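Deviation from plan, reported transparently: zinc ion complex.
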Amino acid sequence: MEPILAPSILAADFKNLGEQMHLCAKGGAKYIHFDVMDGMFVPNISFGMPVLASIRESEDLVMDVHLMIEKPQRYVESFRKAGADILNVHYEACKDLQGTLNQIHEAGMKAGITIKPQTPVEVLTPYLEQAELFLIMSVEPGLGGQAFIPESLGKIRRLKELLQERGREADLEVDGGIYLHNVREVLDAGANVIVSGSSVFRGDISENISQYMEIFKEYRKSRE
Ligand code: DX5
Ligand code: ZN
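Because the crystal trials were delayed, the predicted structure below was used instead.
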C-alpha cells in the first residue's frame, strides 16, 4: 500500500495553524492527524470539535482523528459534524467496541481501532473485518516528542500478517516517536500511514516533509 504521511498537529504552532496545514498539503501529506485528549484516558487535555471544524475547511486533507478519551461513543456524532473522516477509538477506552464501530460507520466515517504499547495485537483479531484502519501506538499516548518503543516493530509485522492472512487491505497506522531516521524501518515492518508531530513541525516544515517524501519514494522503488 502507498505510504501516507499524517502530520500530527499536536506539535504545530497554533497561532499559525492554517498556514502550517497549507505547507503540509503542499508538501504531499494526505492526512492530518488530530489528537484529542480528555485529561482522563490520558493526563493531558488538547483540543476538540471547534478546532477541527475550523481547520477542516482550510485544506483538502483527510481528517484522521485520534480520540484519547474515555467512552468515545459519547462523541461520535459530534466529531462527524465537526468534519472527521476517520475516527480512531482506543480498544482500551471502549466498553462496547463493536457498538462504537457500528456507530462510527452509521455516521458515515471510516473507523479506526487504536492499541496502546502494552496491548497485544491479538486483541484486534475479532475486529479485523470491522475497521478500515488499525493504529499501533509506538509511544504511550498523551504526549508528543517521546522516543519510539522498539517492540512496536514486531507488533506492526504481526498485525500485517494477521491482515494479510484475511486478505484485508486496511490502513496500518503507527503513531509516536517516528523521525526521518527510523521511518523506513516502520514502513518495512508493514505500516503505511505514518504519523509524525515533532519531526514535521520542528524546524522547516516544507523541508521536513520533502525528506519524508523522498524516503517514501525510495521505499516504493524498492517494492517494484
Ligand atoms: C501522542 C499522540 C501523537 C503525537 C506524536 O499521544 O497520539 O500523535 O502527536 O508526536 P511525535 O511524532 O512527536 O512523537
Ligand atoms: Zn495520535
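The chain has eight helices and eight strands. We consider this an acceptable substitute for the interim report.
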